[in-house]
């Protein structure tokens, strides 16, 4: 049964207290299954202002952003008087059935979909977070990760703040609630200027929507416009522009790094709450997270991935018969590689799109079960072929080895693995769930050692320069590459997480 939390919903008692007990017992904690060796984005956010059925529009937008988080989702709506919030564990379509959406009235909505890390009190920390503050009711949905929360949280608690969740997003709301500023928009701007790290956020009061991006612009956030049936404008925000397509909304622009936008019945206003900080947008959004049909950081993701594949072919071409992507994320780069190398592109691995988050396992788990459940080789395309396999990352190396074995097991005579970004050598602190340095194979082994471990005939990664060149031409052209370089654009990092394996043992 889908677990849901209701707050401010007409006819239903708020459920926060029972939820705390459930979360303490570990309800809803996600576990990575065996074939899961990808990095995970933690969130997608949406906001809708002035649309007749705002909750349904938020639902559609979240549906398009489901790839950014599959563990929990929530929608809050406001009708000028009340601010209702429903969130739950599971996929957007599982939580928001027709009768649940009907409980969310109003012309304004914000929404959130989340991948929560293991050990989180998942439903308690699901978003939007709704807080009754000294500035009135506020709901917030946040994509990213703050890095100076320890200090801020301690200070706020000394000042009397009572936190409902362990989520860093609530720190922003508590800062707003404790602000001495005279107006809400000043309180929000002042609070955002105090937090360090990654945040693309949407907020809602009873009568206004706010959208903001951190000064470095780590995570994407786009603004769009759609028409009501009566011809009036509705303003929408979403983590990725692919959400606008489903709403038939027109893409207007990206929210700028350090910008706070307020939308009310009086129109749209904008201000910079921070400036002069170098931009550091997450380049891994272009490599893997964002959908290829999205335009983020001023650039189409499809274009970047195609260029990464082409550049990879130029840098580390190899004599082969066929180019095969590891689906789905390796597909666009593989198309670019194949075209540049003049080799045929074939779907030699088929992904099962219907693998749920839970499945009935056989009594005796067979070797490589997790990977074989998700991917299956097309024997007639691979047998007797020299295969270039294109993927977008090697994290621990175990999954890559299983895939290489699978391709060879289907009859490939050679397997050459090409990765469309540089080696992942350091963890992310800005909203991406990465293992610590001890578990990242490239942080602890040479490329030749990794090649031997994954049993490929050859292995090559895209160079850092090649990746940056492939993503060139967007908003500011200034990227965070910390997981490839170890050069972090902020301070306040967890030193334990970035120690190499040798220093730990
Ligand atoms: S460390 Fe990597 S994943 Fe994290 S924000 Fe920087 S580029 Fe993106």
Can you characterise this structure?
- The chain is an alpha+beta fold and 505 residues long.
- It folds into two domains: 4-277, Glutamine Phosphoribosylpyrophosphate, subunit 1, domain 1; 301-352 and 367-504, Rossmann fold, CATH 3.40.50.2020.
- The chain has an eight-stranded antiparallel β-sheet with strand order 1-5-4-6-3-12-11-13.
- The longest helix is centred in the middle third of the chain and has 16 residues, at 301-316.
- It is globular.
- Residues 218, 282-284, 428, 430, 432, 480-483 line the site of iron/sulfur cluster.
- Iron/sulfur cluster binds at residues 218, 282-284, 428, 430, 432, 480-483.
Note the main attributes of this structure.
505 residues, alpha+beta, Glutamine Phosphoribosylpyrophosphate, subunit 1, domain 1, Rossmann fold, eight-stranded antiparallel sheet, binds iron/sulfur cluster
């Amino acid at each position: 049964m889908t677990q849901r939390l209701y707050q401010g919903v007409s006819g239903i008692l708020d459920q926060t207290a029972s939820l705390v007990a459930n979360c303490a017992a570990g309800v809803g904690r996600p576990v990575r299954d065996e074939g899961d060796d990808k990095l995970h984005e933690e969130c997608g956010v949406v906001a809708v202002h002035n649309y007749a059925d705002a909750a349904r529009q938020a639902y559609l937008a979240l549906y398009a952003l489901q790839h950014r988080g599959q563990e929990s989702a929530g929608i809050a709506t406001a009708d000028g008087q009340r601010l209702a919030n429903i969130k739950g564990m599971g996929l957007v379509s599982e939580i928001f059935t027709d009768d649940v959406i009907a409980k969310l009235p109003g012309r304004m909505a914000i929404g959130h979909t989340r991948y929560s890390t293991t050990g989180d009190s998942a439903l308690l920390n699901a978003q939007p977070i709704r807080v009754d503050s000294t500035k009135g009711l506020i709901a917030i949905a946040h994509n990213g990760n703050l890095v100076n929360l320890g200090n801020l949280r301690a200070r706020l608690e000394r000042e009397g703040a009572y936190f409902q969740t362990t989520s860093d997003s609530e720190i922003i709301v508590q800062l707003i609630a404790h602000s001495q500023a005279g107006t809400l928009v000043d309180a929000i701007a002042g609070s955002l200027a105090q937090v360090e790290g990654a945040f693309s956020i949407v907020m809602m009061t009873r009568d206004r929507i706010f959208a903001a991006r951190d000064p470095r612009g780590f995570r994407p956030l786009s603004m769009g416009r759609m028409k009501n049936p009566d011809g009036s404008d509705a303003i929408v925000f979403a983590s990725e522009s692919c959400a606008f397509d489903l709403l038939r909304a027109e893409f207007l622009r990206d929210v700028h790094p350090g910008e706070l936008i307020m939308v009310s019945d009086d129109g749209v206003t904008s201000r910079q709450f921070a400036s002069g900080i170098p931009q550091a947008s997450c380049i891994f959004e272009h490599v893997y997270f964002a959908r290829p049909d999205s335009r983020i950081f001023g650039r189409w993701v499809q274009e970047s991935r195609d260029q990464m594949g082409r550049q990879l072919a130029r840098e580390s071409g190899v004599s082969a018969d066929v180019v095969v992507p590891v689906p789905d994320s390796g597909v666009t780069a593989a198309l670019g590689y194949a075209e540049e190398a003049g080799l045929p592109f074939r779907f030699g691995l088929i992904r099962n799109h219907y693998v749920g988050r839970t499945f009935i396992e056989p009594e005796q788990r067979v070797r490589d079960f997790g990977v074989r459940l998700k991917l299956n080789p097309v024997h007639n395309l691979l047998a007797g072929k020299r295969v270039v396999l294109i993927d977008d990352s090697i994290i621990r190396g175990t999954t890559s080895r299983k895939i290489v074995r699978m391709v060879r097991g289907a009859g490939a005579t050679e397997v050459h693995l090409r990765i469309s970004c540089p080696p992942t050598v350091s963890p992310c602190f800005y909203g991406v769930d990465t293992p610590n340095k001890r578990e990242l194979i490239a942080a602890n082994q040479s490329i030749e050692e990794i090649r031997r471990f994954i049993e490929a005939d050859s292995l090559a990664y895209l160079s850092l320069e090649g990746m940056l060149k492939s993503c060139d031409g967007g908003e500011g052209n200034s990227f965070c590459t910390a997981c490839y370089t170890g050069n972090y654009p902020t301070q306040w990092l967890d030193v334990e997480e970035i120690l190499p394996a040798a220093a730990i043992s």
